[in-house]
Amino acid sequence: MIRSMTGFATCEAASPLGALGAEMRAVNHRFLELGLRLPEELRSFEPAIRERIGARLSRGKVDLSLRLRGGDGPSVLAVDDAALDQLAAVARKLAKALPAMSIEFTRLLEYPGVLKRGSVDSDELSQSLLALIDATVDAFIAAREREGAKLAQAIVERLDAIAAVVAMLDTLLPELSAAWRDRLRQRLALLAETADPGRIEQEIVIQSSKSDVAEELDRLRAHISEARRVLSQPEPAGRRLDFLLQEFNREANTLASKSFDQRTTDAGIELKVLIEQIREQVQNIE
Known about the structure:
Layout: E1 7-15, E2 18-27, E3 32-37, H1 46-54, E4 60-70, E5 77-79, H2 81-97, H3 105-109, E6 115-117, H4 122-191, H5 197-211, H6 214-231, H7 238-257, H8 262-282
Parallel strand pairs: 3-4
Antiparallel strand pairs: 1-2, 2-4, 5-6
């Protein structure tokens, strides 16, 4: 399944800390680069989040933002009655010794330990958080696959066009070979009218083999077949397709360098254009 490297997804879920929201987006990158923006309450879960995402994505510059909206659960403030009682006892004692002393209620709340947050079950929070991450990645991958299907279709259309060029050149091979031999024979005859005919024929064979593009066409057909196979595989295909395009380009260059006919020159140019168009699509594939 072809996936685009670009994508976007958002999800929300309840947690012991309140409502959690996640937003994931990505752009092209050669490798996987993951950036996280987390609320302070969730910082301790960063390694687990990175591991969870890294297990399912392989390429792209991915940014994940988590937002937290507090609820009425354990995250609300609570008063430590025992600490407050101790402070009250101290205040009463001091009041007897210092009758003019005044103590404001809000100042008591500032004393360390008087106000505290309710405890949160770490396992329950972890489960709800990772479930949200999984749901977000699911939605993100689905978005990538929808875009990837469009990219794959564009690549297949260009592979079909390359196959058509190869088939056209295949039908021209006998004609091209004969034309090349005649042209070479004429040139050799002009250069050495008294040369040994056997030597001339041998030179024709040597030079004809250098102009023969049958091997390049065979390799192009093999590359087309491999590209179609890669497109049908479930694993990420971007790097493999990128390597194949180098091979496509090598054969197209060799074919163009052997050209002595305008039709093969035009075909070589068309192949290069199609290969470059595929490369532009592959740059967006995971």
